[in-house]
Design brief:
By secondary structure, this protein is α+β, with helices and mostly antiparallel strands. The protein folds into two domains: about 25-170, no CATH class; about 180-225 and about 245-383, no CATH class. The chain is about 35% helix and about 25% strand. The chain is built from five helices and 16 strands. It has helices at about 1-10, 185-195, 205-215, 260-315, 325-375, and strands at about 30-35, 45, 50-60, 65-70, 80, 85-90, 90-95, 100-110, 120, 125-135, 135-145, 150-155, 155-160, 165-170, 250, 255. Strands 1, 2, 3, 4 and 7 form a five-stranded antiparallel β-sheet that branches. Strands 8, 9, 10, 11 and 14 form a five-stranded antiparallel β-sheet that branches. Helix 4 (about 260-315) packs antiparallel against helix 5 (about 325-375).
């Protein structure tokens, strides 16, 4: 049953479509074989005796999946967990460089951070790189949400550990937005031009009105600063009154050309556009993850229901010492039939859930792509 679940949930790999808009830098992998370890190999773990273990990955299985694991010279290959066993694959790749900012983040169960670095894949989706503290050592392996932990190869077996670390990219600080140099400031506009939030623009021209909106101003004239005052001699130490020439506007740095003011507005609009698009994509990523979690919960419920039915069936059709051989043979046949029906019923339900996820993901991906395509012409997103 578990193998079937892994196969039919292959389409769930599409859940990363929204997050894929921002790809992290790649790990540098070097192909090798037979226990060879490059001099610059990344040592990400250790044996209980302190001997270093190096991060590797290998292609294995009927689906040509690529599985992260561990290696050292004595292994004569890359050791991965697969199909319940520890498998040594003689042809493999070794990581010789991690992306700048990559770090190991503690997590548990099915909690896969959005910044997790993918190191492989199989039919059911991408495989993130993880490592666990186990039996006195630190061992690298693979994970995805359906595993509910980090799967490693150890002692000839594939071992799943619920408490583990996952390799992630550190969040990058947003690039600073260029300051709107020609803008005189919200309160200065109110005091100098009489611009009153929700009441009047005062004497602000079209460009100054755009500056006001781009900077999110909501000020009103201060009582001590009249809207239109007669020219008076400047008090000692006070800034002189500026009378801009035709084709100029007043800014915090003095009079500037209309072209310079327009550049300031454009910079402000670009910042607003980027902020709105980033917020939208972050929200849609959450929506996609929630849908994926919803499907996983439903699949788990189907699996639990099948286990419950199988347990009851095994009890109902158990051999009875009071029955003769013919009656017990009948019991065995009925047991096989009912268990097969339980299996088929679970498979049908999981297939339907997978199809639902595939259809939803395709629609969601198209919606996000269309939104990104149209956002540049949408004034509420990119003014």
């Amino acid at each position: 049953m578990q193998k079937f679940v892994l196969a039919v949930t292959a389409a769930l790999g599409l859940l990363g479509s929204v997050a894929a808009f921002a790809q992290a830098p790649s790990i540098v992998w070097v192909a090798t074989s037979g226990g060879n370890v490059p001099p610059t190999a990344v040592a990400a773990g250790k044996e209980a005796n302190g001997q270093a273990l190096f991060l590797c990955r290998a292609k294995y299985g009927s689906d040509n999946g690529v599985h992260p694991g561990k290696t050292r010279r004595e292994f004569n290959g890359c050791n991965i967990g697969w199909g319940g066993k520890e498998v040594a694959v003689p042809q493999y790749e070794v990581a010789v460089s991690l992306p700048a900012g990559a770090t190991w983040q503690p997590t548990t169960g099915a909690n896969i951070p959005a910044t997790a670095i993918m190191g492989g894949q199989e039919a059911a989706g991408g495989l993130a790189i993880c490592r666990v503290n186990y039996q006195g050592g630190v061992h690298m392996g693979k994970t995805r949400a359906a595993f509910n932990g980090c799967n490693i190869g150890w002692g000839g077996n594939e071992v799943a550990v619920s408490q583990y670390e996952i390799l992630v990219m550190a969040p990058q600080a947003a690039a600073p937005v260029a300051a709107a140099v020609p803008f005189m400031g919200c309160q200065q506009m109110s005091n100098t031009l009489g611009t009153n939030d929700g009441v009047t623009w005062g004497s602000a021209n079209a460009l100054q009105q755009q500056q006001w909106q781009a900077n999110g101003c909501h000020t009103r004239p201060q009582a001590a600063a009249p809207v239109a005052a007669a020219p008076v001699a400047a008090a000692p130490g006070a800034a002189p009154t500026l009378n801009c020439r035709s084709g100029e506007v007043l800014s915090a740095q003095g009079c500037v050309s209309l072209a310079a003011a327009q550049l300031s507005i454009n910079a402000g609009n670009a910042a607003v556009c980027t902020k709105n698009q980033t917020a939208y994509l972050a929200n849609e990523e959450i929506v996609a993850k929630n849908k994926g979690n919803e499907i996983q919960v439903k699949i788990k419920a189907v699996e639990d229901e099948k286990i419950s039915k199988d347990n009851k069936t095994n009890i109902d059709y158990a051999p009875n010492p009071k029955f003769d051989r013919s009656a017990n043979d009948y019991q065995k046949n009925q047991l096989r039939l009912v268990l097969a029906n339980n299996q088929q019923g679970a498979q049908d339900k999981i297939r339907a859930l997978t199809n639902e996820q595939v259809a939803w993901t395709a629609q969601h991906k198209a919606k996000v792509e269309n939104w990104l395509k149209d956002s540049s012409s949408n004034k509420s997103i990119c003014p």
